[in-house]
């Protein structure tokens, strides 16, 4: 694939993320506040906007790149050697409850590696974007991870879902706390990881997250000079993986905190 083709895809992904974000914001601002919350399963929110936004993104991508495969959180799709992996709204629980903290995530993955990663937060009007080997930006401004080297000065976000045992989460939380980290938890893994790329926090980790949540964000951290684990393995594309993203100096302590089965 030539550089020009990748650049075309990158520009298209940025434009589509912005268009999708405008739709999400419109739906958020005009939602019926008395609306009953609906669930796909325990703690798993269902909103019509997720599916509507995913359909819009799939349509735009297939108009521009009919040869590429598509896989989205809501409707699934096909995994192929060249595939767009999309989370229409990451932070659905906050979206559904009226909290303005969510984003759209679009990654282009080629031969198991993210080549393009784009996230758009429509409420802050922040577009995080990266192309492998070309750096990462927010609204066109270059991104760099923080210079924090001491865990006792670090802000670490530890994501959690009911896909993992609470005891395992508690173990990681306990270790991070004992090491002196300031631990937080917000409602969007994708934005949480992107915040590492711009130094709003120094690390993000989660014992299990799906490919669509983090495929774009980890590339953004890599391209901002951070360290990430080998997230996008073949198995991850099917069943998710653990994710770690941090400043290079914090890698040993984050890896150690995330290790299970060894004390
Ligand atoms: C979830 C969010 C959350 C993370 C979970 C994800 P959703 O995605 O990213 O922060 O901890 O692992 O499943 O449900 O908001 O699309
Ligand atoms: Ca998600």
Could you explain the architecture of this structure?
The structure is a single chain. This protein has helices at 3-29, 48-64, 92-97, 166-179, 189-197, 211-223, 234-239, 251-258, and strands spanning 39-41, 44-45, 69-72, 76-77, 82-90, 103-110, 113-121, 126-131, 136-138, 141-142, 155-159, 182-184, 203-209, 227-228, 241-246. By secondary structure, it is an alpha+beta fold. The chain folds into 2 domains: 3-142, Fructose-1,6-Bisphosphatase, Chain A, domain 1, CATH 3.30.540; 151-258, D-Maltodextrin-Binding Protein, domain 2 (3-Layer(aba) Sandwich), CATH 3.40.190.80. The chain has an 8-stranded mixed sheet, with helices on both faces. A hairpin with a 2-residue loop joins β1 (39-41) and β2. α1 packs antiparallel against α2. The longest helix is centred in the N-terminal third of the chain and has 27 residues, at 3-29. The model has no long low-confidence stretch (mean pLDDT 94). D-MYO-inositol-1-phosphate (IPD) binds at residues 87, 90-93, 159-161, 187-189, 206, 209, 213.
């Amino acid at each position: 694939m030539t550089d020009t083709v990748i650049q075309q895809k990158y520009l298209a992904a940025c434009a589509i993320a912005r268009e999708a974000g405008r739709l999400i914001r419109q739906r958020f601002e005009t939602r019926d506040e008395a609306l009953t919350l609906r669930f796909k399963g325990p703690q798993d929110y269902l909103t019509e906007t997720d599916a509507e936004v995913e359909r819009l993104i799939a349509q735009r991508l297939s108009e521009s790149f009919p040869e590429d495969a598509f896989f989205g959180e809501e409707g699934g799709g096909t995994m192929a050697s060249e595939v767009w992996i999309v989370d229409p709204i990451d932070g659905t629980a906050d979206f559904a409850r009226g909290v303005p903290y969510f984003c759209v995530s679009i990654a282009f993955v080629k031969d198991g590696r993210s080549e393009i990663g784009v996230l758009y937060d429509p409420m802050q009007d922040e577009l995080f974007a990266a192309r492998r080997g070309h750096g990462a930006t927010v609204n066109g401004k270059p991104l760099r991870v923080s210079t924090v080297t001491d865990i006792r000065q670090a802000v670490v976000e530890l994501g959690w879902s009911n896909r993992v045992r609470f005891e395992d989460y508690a173990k990681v939380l306990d270790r991070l706390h004992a090491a002196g980290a300031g631990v937080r938890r917000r409602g969007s893994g994708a934005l949480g990881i992107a915040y590492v790329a711009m130094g709003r926090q120094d690390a993000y980790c989660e014992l299990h997250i799906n490919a669509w949540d983090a495929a774009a964000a980890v590339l953004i951290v890599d391209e901002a000079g951070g360290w990430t684990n080998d997230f996008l393995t073949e198995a991850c594309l099917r069943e998710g993986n653990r994710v770690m993203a941090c400043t290079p100096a914090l890698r040993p302590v984050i890896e150690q905190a995330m290790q299970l089965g060894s004390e």
